[in-house]
Amino acid sequence: MENKSQRFKLLDTLYLAMMILPIVCGIIIKVLTNPPSEGISITGAKIYFTLKMPIQDLPITESQINSWFVMISITGLCLFLTHGLKEKADTKRQHIAEWIVENSEKLVIGNMGEFFSGFAPFIASILGLSAFSSLLALFGLYAPTSDVNVTAGWAILVFVLITYYKCKCGPLVYAKSFADPVLLAPLNIISEVATPISMAFRHYGNVLSGSVISVLLASGLQGLSAIVFGKLPGFLGEFPFLQIGIPAVLSVYFDVFSGILQAYIFAMLTMLYVAGGFPADEYFRRKALKNN
Amino acid sequence: MQSLDVISVNFWQIVISLANLTILFLILKKFLFKPVKNVLEQRQQTLDSKYDEAERSVVEAESSKKQWEEKLRSAEEEAETIIRTASEDAKNHGNRIVAEARDQAEGIVRQARSTAELERRSAEEDIKREIIDVSAVLTEKILGREINMQDHRTMIDSFIAEIGDDDDGNK
What we know:
The structure holds 2 protein chains of 2 kinds.
Chain A lengths: L1 H32 L13 E5 L6 E4 H20 L10 H21 L7 H16 L12 H19 L4 H8 L6 H45 L5 H4 L7 H32 L2 H12 L1
Antiparallel strand pairs in A: 1-2
Helix pairs in contact in A: 1-2, 2-4, 3-4, 4-9, 5-7, 5-9, 7-9
Chain B lengths: L10 H133 L5 H22 L1
């Protein structure tokens, strides 16, 4: 018994380390590779190294590394929450794990219907990856969601799923869905193609704009503080008093609220597009015919 | 250190991000949803079995209650019949005893009566004999001669029998 609980504690520590260490690692890498610089520069992710690949060279940047860190953290969180599950729930972490699972299933079934209940882990992973990626900005790290490639990858995966479920009844039904009013077929096709692009750019744009505004405001506050308190002698004149507190309030909006809201919107749109594109009536009619 | 432009599309980065989401989906499915759902299912099963058990025990309790009620009712009936038969028995027994007693009393009375009759008869006989003797003595004395005792006796017997008959007729 003693041995077992010792082992249990050891595993717990391991999982907690798996959750926390990636973020610490990210901060360390950021500090090591980011020399303090004057002025503002709004750029994309930093390139650590470049791999030679066919079609296009692959630069491994902050956004890739950070999303892998987030993934490792989420995996650690999952392992920690589901460690020592019992039939009789008596630990807080089991309640949290059950809350996550039950609510994501409720959300998915409520928005997509019983047929898509297998989507719950997918929606949960979109929510988790997107929200935690955006929240990385709280640690001063580069948020992977402010890289268009990251959100584009997710949007393309969602587009593949939409198309897959639209094709469930064969290509003919899929083709027919565009020609609802026949004259509008070109517009329908454009809107279909626009779906992933709009999803990718909405998410990326919101998060990036938040960080851009944060940077602009921080430097603006520095200038304002230099004007207001510049007359003070010595060190006090150079200290940016206005940068205390005010950027934090903005960060609550742009990093926490906006990040979580965008994750929610992305997940919501995924659910609506996949469930909306799926010709449910036709599918169940055919299934019933086949069964008979 | 170099950095990307704010908007720079890279095919491989898109592929990596797509793969990341897929991998995270599989991780969540395997490490979060599967174990939690297993536990939930187990709990549901236990709950179901508990409910079944409770229902079964309620049904059992009801049936046993019914049984007991039936038993109680039958026991009451039995007690009633026992009491009834016992009282009937007692009545019969009493009647029999009374009848026997009456019989016995009647027998005693009859016996007493017959004994009294016998005694009366013997007393009558005695009286007759006395009368005969006395009358014989008297007649002997009156007539002064001895009568043949046998003749005398038959004569008197007939006489007395006449008297007795008269006596009986008067009665």
